[in-house]
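Workshop exercise sheet. Pairs work together: one partner reads the sequence aloud, the other fills in the structure field after running the prediction. Swap roles for the next sheet.
Pair: D.N. / O.F.
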Amino acid sequence: MYYFAFFFTLLVCLLPIFLFLKKTRILSNRLPPGPLGIPFIGQSLSLLRAMRANTGEKWFEDRAEKYGPISKLTLFGNPTVFIHGQAANKFIFTSGGLNNKQPKPVSTILGERNLMELSGEDHKRVRGALMTFLKPEVLKQSVGKIDQEVREHFEAYWQGKDTVTVMPLMKNLTFNIMCALLFGLEQGEKREKFVKIFEQMVEGLWSIPLNLPFTRFNRSIQASSRIQNMIMDIIHERRSGRHEANTYQDLILSLLSLQASDNATFLSDQEIVDSIRIIMVAGHDTSSILLTFLIRHLANDPVVYSAIVKEQEEIAKSKTSGELLTWEDLTKMKYTWRAALEMLRIVPPAFAMFRRTLRDIEFGGYLIPKGWQVFSAANMTHRDESIFPEPSKFDPNRFENQASIPPYCYVGFGAGPRICPGYEFARIETLVAMHYLVTRFKWKLCGNNNNYKRDPTPIPTQGLPIQIEQINKLQNH
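Structure field:
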């Protein structure tokens, strides 16, 4: 009787362990191929090295060749599944089984209530609030303000110069446009302080999340806290005087007006701060990189350059001296915008994207367990020759009929319900900047080394120095 009781007790104790091991074995057989690697670190360092050596695309291709279109690994502290292709893009942008939980560096630095982190109703509410300002009918009123910022930039930093370094200047330009449109923050000491702290903040977005003194992650967290305090100060200033100004004068006023009206798109102060931070990062990086690489490409592509110049000169001839560009002028810049879309296809600012599973979910015949990270190389479809023939060739005419491109294959601004809310904003600042650039200056690249690396966004060698020649004064059309 004693032995029976002993073995019965032992069986009861071991049964849950046996069932757990059996379930784990079954699950492991359904997981995608590939090793998870060293816990916490996994393949993070390998990916970061490839990005900084500008071999990230090859890293993706080698992995896909070895393991197929879906595989598992560890990235930035989390077990992860890597996916790519048209079906993967649709899955990432539309699946209800995923949320937008970003890697720890991103969520820690940009805030847990930023738009990239949100899903479901929260995402719709915050996106809806942002779109009250970022929709075309509102942004039409801002074309003149962006025009003035662009003119001031070229007068201050390009006019009278023999050489300039493009990338820092384009970052300066896009940051100033954002300060004007998002905060109504005028030129001066406050803007200059803001940009320095902002640059420190974004440095750690793709880093090993070790919050230790002197690490990139630690410096970025401190800068993010200072940015939050500065935005909060602006919110308090705007709140105290918001009824005296146009609701759509800047984004913060627009969002505060929703609070005052008890609208369904009401945002808390923290959601406003986090939304501003993510828009700053997305807008600053995307537009400045797009402009930089357009300038880089046009220096060696006389055919596309001439077509853009011809289009922009026709618009310039229709303007009187000192007259600002209008929304109607932008609608005529069709070829220039097609060139911009092609540039985003070839050199996308966003390297890849992350999601997190809300439950056990199947994709491509494999199981992705609840809580795992999904890492999508969405831009790999940009290089797929079955979608874009001769994918290495720069051809703006690919976008003459965008309806001919299969859905979820071109993701320069996202896709589906996750398409970038700042799309029109980016289009306006890109077109206005290109107008004044090609009608006022000619340029050529300096030196022979005009390669670039990713850290995590593309950065040209030495910031892309160019020689410039002024062909018209900025004050006159």
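Discussion prompt: Confidence is low (pLDDT under 50) at residues 2-26, 242-246. What would you look at next?
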